[in-house]
């Protein structure tokens, strides 16, 4: 009897870690769906206009995925827009833009370093990060 109980108790840490990872992915996906949906609904000229295009836009969310002040944030997002996206084998198309989004689970408020030229956060140990991309085309 005690052997079976000890076996089950040994599985608790694994189960809790799996639950935490699943919860993190769910909230990250909900945040991404919201922000990428906003990007799709934004007027194309406004979406690709400076200062948003080619720059960063940071937003902050709590553990439930609700937008909040940066001081109480669990999730941080980095959104950038690359206007004039080119498809493989083609020249840059002014009617096509790519929206890049990173969602970082960073409740410890660790410093997230930027990578070279692509305006993205570098992988940081202990900070799970999800990355998303969306192509948006002009209707005109």
The low-confidence parts are: none
Major β-sheet strand ordering = 1-2-3-4
Determine the structural class based on helices, strands and strand pairing: alpha+beta
What value does the Rg take, in angstroms? Answer: 19 Å
User: What does the largest sheet look like?
Assistant: 4 strands, antiparallel
How many helical elements? Answer: 2
Please provide the count of β strands. Answer: 4
The total tally of domains equals: 1
Strand residue content: 15-25%
What is the CA–CA distance across the termini?
Answer: 72 Å
- The helical percent reads 25-40%
Assembly classification: single chain
Order of secondary-structure elements: HHEEEE
Shape: elongated
Q: Whole-number average pLDDT?
A: 84
Structural commentary:
- By secondary structure, this protein is an alpha+beta fold.
- It has one domain.
- It is built from two helices and four strands.
- The protein has a four-stranded antiparallel beta sheet with strand order 1-2-3-4, covered by helices on one side.
- 18% of the residues are buried.
- The mean pLDDT is 84.
């Amino acid at each position: 009897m005690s052997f079976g109980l000890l076996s089950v108790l040994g599985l608790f840490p694994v189960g809790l870690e799996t639950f935490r990872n699943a919860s993190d992915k769910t909230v990250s996906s909900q945040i991404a769906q919201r922000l990428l949906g906003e990007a799709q609904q934004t007027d194309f000229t406004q979406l690709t206009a400076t200062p948003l295009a080619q720059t960063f836009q940071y937003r902050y969310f709590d553990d439930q995925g609700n937008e909040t002040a940066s001081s109480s944030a669990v999730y941080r997002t980095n959104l950038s827009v690359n206007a004039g996206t080119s498809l493989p084998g083609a020249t840059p198309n002014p009617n096509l833009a790519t929206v890049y989004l990173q969602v970082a689970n960073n409740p410890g408020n660790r410093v997230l370093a930027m990578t070279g030229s692509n305006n993205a956060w570098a992988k940081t140990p202990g900070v799970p990060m999800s990355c998303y991309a969306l192509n948006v085309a002009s209707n005109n």
